[in-house]
Amino acid sequence: MPLLAEIENWLKSRPTAQGVNSLQALREQVNKDIIDQQGIQQDASYQQSFHVAVSDGAEIEVRVYVPYSLENAEQRPALVFAHGGGWCLGNLDAWDRACRLLAETTQQVVFSVDYRLAPEFKFPTPLNDFFTAFRYIYENASRFGVDQNRVAVGGDSAGANIAAATCLMAKQHPEIKVSHQLLFYPALDATMSSKSYHQYAEGYGLESSTMVYCWDQYVQHESEKQNELVSPLLARSLEGLPDTTIFVCEYDPVRDDGERYAQKLWDMGIQVNFYLLEGMIHGAIHMLTVSPDKVNSIYRNIRM
């Protein structure tokens, strides 16, 4: 279908991109843009946070979003979530509203992980940070009032890449069981060989040139782009992965990554809930002020 009129008008209304003189300035700009899309009037509260020690002795923050109806419940399902932002952008504040909506609409406790960003921390550090946080939550499920048999992973864009790679890592740790993976418009192939990278290269918010920049921030060497933990779509085998929910946007350079991944999972006999968000662009889960009805329907359609 055509690009949604409200999204097309929003794209046209956006100011001409202004050059930023530092990565920090770009990060601030992107986070503000995402928060503006969500609407400042929205409730973005969370109940608590804690810190997890990672491999090099650093500590990363994890925020916890508990559905109001489950505040006093035990054995609750959980979703450990990685925010997007091309591995080098994004933060917990900008993803606050999305995580609150995920908690309330899925009725799961959402753990939002503040993994460290590239290029200061290149692959595999962001992935290892997230995996360490997932493992900590999984092993301490009873402490959080969580059912260890229902601990899922999720993310959007680069965060979905990290979530998918976490499932591949978990295959090497039989003591860990990921119950589900929830992937919003995942970027899964660093070689950028899909047709959609050319078909939607410009004019739809996220541009293919931006993805080139982001991939290059994440990996240290070109050869790493073939690593399945960088490019889960290139994994030799997806056997043993959990049931999966995938949302892709129609007008998105990474659209084909999600579609091809869904097909590979189906071919392995894995249950996949697949949704094509017609007329929508990358970053759809944040666009509450642009297309509220469509965005709210995304959250309502999540099945885990």
TrEMBL record:
<dbReference type="InterPro" id="IPR050300">
    <property type="entry name" value="GDXG_lipolytic_enzyme"/>
</dbReference>
<feature type="domain" description="Alpha/beta hydrolase fold-3">
    <location>
        <begin position="79"/>
        <end position="284"/>
    </location>
</feature>
<dbReference type="InterPro" id="IPR013094">
    <property type="entry name" value="AB_hydrolase_3"/>
</dbReference>
<dbReference type="Pfam" id="PF07859">
    <property type="entry name" value="Abhydrolase_3"/>
</dbReference>
<keyword id="KW-0378">Hydrolase</keyword>
<dbReference type="InterPro" id="IPR029058">
    <property type="entry name" value="AB_hydrolase_fold"/>
</dbReference>
<dbReference type="GO" id="GO:0016787">
    <property type="term" value="F:hydrolase activity"/>
</dbReference>
<protein>
    <submittedName>
        <fullName>Esterase/lipase/thioesterase</fullName>
    </submittedName>
</protein>
